[in-house]
Amino acid sequence: MAKIAVLPGDGVGPEVVREAVKVLTTAGARFGIALEFEEGIVGGAAIDRAGTPLPPETLSLCRASDAILFGAVGGPMWDGLPVNRRPERGVLLLRKELGLYANLRPIRLFASLVDASPLKREIIEGVDLMMLRELTGGLYFGEPKGIIPAPDGKGEQGVDTLIYTTHEIERIARVGFQIATQRRKRLTSVDKVNVLASSELWRRVVTETATEFPDIELDHMLVDNCSMQLIRDPRRFDVVLTENTFGDILSDEAAMLAGSIGMLPSASLGDGPGLYEPIHGSAPDIAGQDTVNPLATILSAAMLLRHSLHQEAAAAAIEAAVSRVLEAGYRTPDIRQPGRTVLVGTAQMGDLVIESIRKG
Ligand code: NAD
């Protein structure tokens, strides 16, 4: 029996997570996977009920589970709180507490959505890449950090520290090479070796780690060039491996290749349970209207089956079902296209995916 912690969160979180749980239940039944779901509170919902964005019971539930399905957190009613007590802190704390150092964002453009991307068809048709971002090191966590008096006595200075250790680079590089082994066997490591000492070590360690994976073709690219190549020729990429800050920026850029933010799943992996969530936020502007696109969360559920439960056939069946539903022309408002598409709501989109999984 696999135990899944379900953390719907705020805004559209509960709506999209409900559909993903329906889909997991259906895929579990079809593929004979016993699943047990237990819900926990997180984010603004947890602040309102327990006074903190990540209550200890929620953290214990996550630690005791095989995987975590997460919706989204945040909303205008909590925007007045200090940064370290806001809903968004809930997900940052979870990543830190569970040591989720590897963030995977597959960027796949479904053939039927080519026209939903702002880029030209001839550039993006067939895009299928994996952004792999180191999530717990680098500039966002390095010490010293803060605003201190400037040494010349004139005002202040803001300090952040960019640190990477051999161990941190090696473990994320291994995840990258392992993913590439299951894909098209190419890995592009992104750095800024011409300027940064941390990048010099990054490139050296990635190159050394590559010797453990002789089947994988490795190349290195400077981050500024990568940001250009992602738009110029995105199909050249298979796995893109990079550090925390570069990954933060490049993964949002790459997300636009796939059209809508409502289509993009993610996984954050460490040595314990993995966390699966759509890349979008709590979308308070459309919450409670049955219009939010649940496919990013449904595709995150497929990643959960693949990466945490090692159920590749069930994961692929969900992805194929999503593809068939889109090919049949069903669209939530964010991916609506003029012409022959049929507009559906959140729950109906979930039902269509379920029906398609059952028919297989
Ligand atoms: P957002 O991703 O919530 O929404 C941006 C825009 O995209 C909105 O117009 C929204 O309606 C639309 N959108 C988002 N997801 C959609 C979907 N599945 N289907 C259709 N349309 C969709 O980003 P935001 O508005 O900047 O942030 C809203 C709140 O979410 C903030 O409080 C922010 O801090 C929080 N947030 C949370 C997470 C997280 O939980 N991991 C991530 C990002 C933002």
From TrEMBL:
Residues 3-353 form the Isopropylmalate dehydrogenase-like domain. GO terms for molecular function: 3-isopropylmalate dehydrogenase activity; magnesium ion binding; NAD binding. NAD(+) binds at G281, S282, A283, P284, D285, I286, A287, G288, Q289, D290, T291, V292, N293. Its cofactor is Mg(2+); Mn(2+). It is an enzyme of class 1 (oxidoreductase). Substrate binds at R95, R105, R133, D224. One of its GO terms (biological process) is L-leucine biosynthetic process. Mg(2+) binds at D224, D248, D252. Pathway: Amino-acid biosynthesis; L-leucine biosynthesis; L-leucine from 3-methyl-2-oxobutanoate: step 3/4. It catalyses: (2R,3S)-3-isopropylmalate + NAD(+) = 4-methyl-2-oxopentanoate + CO2 + NADH. GO terms for cellular component: cytosol. Binds 1 Mg(2+) or Mn(2+) ion per subunit. It is found in: Cytoplasm. The record marks Y140, K192 as: Important for catalysis. SUPFAM superfamilies: Isocitrate/Isopropylmalate dehydrogenase-like (SSF53659). Its EC number is 1.1.1.85. It holds the Pfam family Iso_dh. Keywords: Amino-acid biosynthesis, Branched-chain amino acid biosynthesis, Cytoplasm, Leucine biosynthesis, Magnesium, Manganese, Metal-binding, NAD, Oxidoreductase. Belongs to the isocitrate and isopropylmalate dehydrogenases family. LeuB type 1 subfamily. Homodimer. NCBIfam families: leuB (TIGR00169). Catalyzes the oxidation of 3-carboxy-2-hydroxy-4-methylpentanoate (3-isopropylmalate) to 3-carboxy-4-methyl-2-oxopentanoate. The product decarboxylates to 4-methyl-2 oxopentanoate. This is 3-isopropylmalate dehydrogenase. It comes from Candidatus Methylomirabilis tolerans.
